[in-house]
Specification:
Elements lengths: L1 H5 L7 E4 L11 E4 L5 H8 L4 E2 L8 H8 L3 E2 L3 H7 L2 H10 L7 E4 L2 H11 L3 E5 L9 E4 L2 H11 L4 E5 L5 E9 L5 E3 L3 E6 L2 E7 L8 H18 L4 E10 L2 E8 L9 H4 L4 H10 L11 E8 L5 H5 L4 E5 L9 E9 L2 H15 L8
Parallel strand pairs: 1-2, 3-4
Antiparallel strand pairs: 5-8, 6-7, 6-8, 9-10, 9-11, 9-13, 11-12, 12-15, 13-14, 15-17, 16-17
Helix pairs in contact: 3-4
Length: about 350
């Protein structure tokens, strides 16, 4: 989707991916190789003007090695911070960005002590890797603690206090090479089984606190962008708790919750990222109306049924169906907002995705 946004601008793209079946190959040259293979990295970088990534588990060492040969954005420091939940939350707190309480856990005794300090319920997570609900366990009692420790003990861990959130939100922000920052409106995200199912953009303005939360979210994003000398698109996932925002985690890349911007914003997150890393002027982040994005998980319904819904825009990624895998998304546009509700309900009925916030 980054390449599809850049092709109309006259840009050409090369991709490095371990898989010969990478779906990006339809939009440019594909080089197959491991992210930590120096020879593959050298071949990949040869002749390029700039390198970026859309996957935050790219090895930091590989990103640093590339910086000696070609411009790479976002900077490796952003990768390093986002790959470790302890480092990430420590960064947030150092910048005055509130989070839930958290403790590093390296032993069973550490877990007991951390639970005593943070209380129950709490969430034990691996510090690295893990997404869509993987690599984490909720602890509500002593038995849960033992089960969670047994399941996750082989990796460095972090215990996080429970966040009694009203809803989950995200802020997308871009910073250009010249330091210019543009922020999108807050997005409301609804999950099921730890996987993002639906994003509403902008977040429900009928909620009394939303207008006050926007400046806070933008301020948090701006602090991170400036601290890391960031260039590109950044996403920060947030909890709304008692009318306040708590930062959960960040993604140094274009983000699933921003896919709606392809049709729903004056400048998509993908074009915005491309503009930023090339030093081009950033575009307007204004929404073009009310939008909703519905992920297609595991398998896609018939194309006929999806396209029969007015205002629906279907994006299939060319990925093989697999349980729990995001293989595409549908963006629904509605003017006025009540029309979006009708169209979104039709798409969700076809897709069968849950629309309720996670408990």
């Amino acid at each position: 989707m980054l390449a599809l946004a850049g092709l109309p601008l006259g840009l050409r793209f090369r991709f490095l991916d371990p898989s010969p079946d990478a779906c990006a190959q339809i939009a440019g040259e594909l080089q197959v190789g491991s992210y930590d293979d120096r020879e593959a990295l050298a071949r990949f970088a040869d002749g390029l003007d700039v390198v970026t990534y859309e996957f935050e588990n790219v090895p930091v060492d590989a990103a640093r090695w590339l910086t000696e040969r070609v411009r790479i954005y976002p900077p490796p420091a952003a990768l390093e911070a986002a790959q470790d939940r302890l480092t990430e939350k420590t960064l947030f707190n150092r910048l005055g960005i509130p989070t839930v309480g958290f403790e590093a856990v390296n032993s069973r005794d550490d877990l007991t002590a951390a639970l005593d300090r943070l209380g129950k319920p709490a969430v034990l997570k691996t510090r690295r890797l893990g997404y869509d609900g993987k690599g984490q366990a909720v602890i509500r009692n002593v038995d849960d603690a033992e089960t969670a420790w047994s399941a996750l003990r082989d990796a460095p861990l972090i215990l996080e206090a429970w966040a009694p959130f009203t809803r989950e939100l995200s802020i997308l922000a871009a910073r250009g090479r010249d330091g210019t920052i543009r922020c999108y409106r807050l997005i409301e995200n609804r999950h099921q089984d730890g996987i993002l199912r639906t994003s509403l953009a902008p977040a429900n303005v009928a909620a009394s606190t939303t207008s006050g939360l926007q400046p806070d979210a933008e301020a948090y994003a701006q602090r991170v962008l400036s601290e890391l000398d960031y260039v590109g698109l950044l996403a920060i996932e947030l909890f709304e708790v008692d009318g306040q925002l708590l930062a959960n985690e960040m993604a140094p890349r274009v983000h699933n919750s921003g896919h709606w911007t392809i049709e729903g914003a004056e400048t998509s997150q993908f074009e915005q990222h491309v503009r930023a890393i090339l030093g081009l002027p950033l575009g307007s982040t204004a929404p073009t109306g009310s939008s909703a994005m519905v992920n297609l998980i595991g398998e896609a319904p018939s194309l006929d049924s999806l396209l029969a819904v007015s205002g629906a825009h279907v994006h299939l990624y060319g990925k093989a169906p697999r349980p729990g895998r995001k293989i595409g998304h549908v963006t629904v546009i509605g003017k006025p907002p009540h029309m979006l509700d009708v169209r979104l309900a039709a798409i969700q009925k076809i897709v069968g995705s849950g629309s309720a916030p996670s408990p």
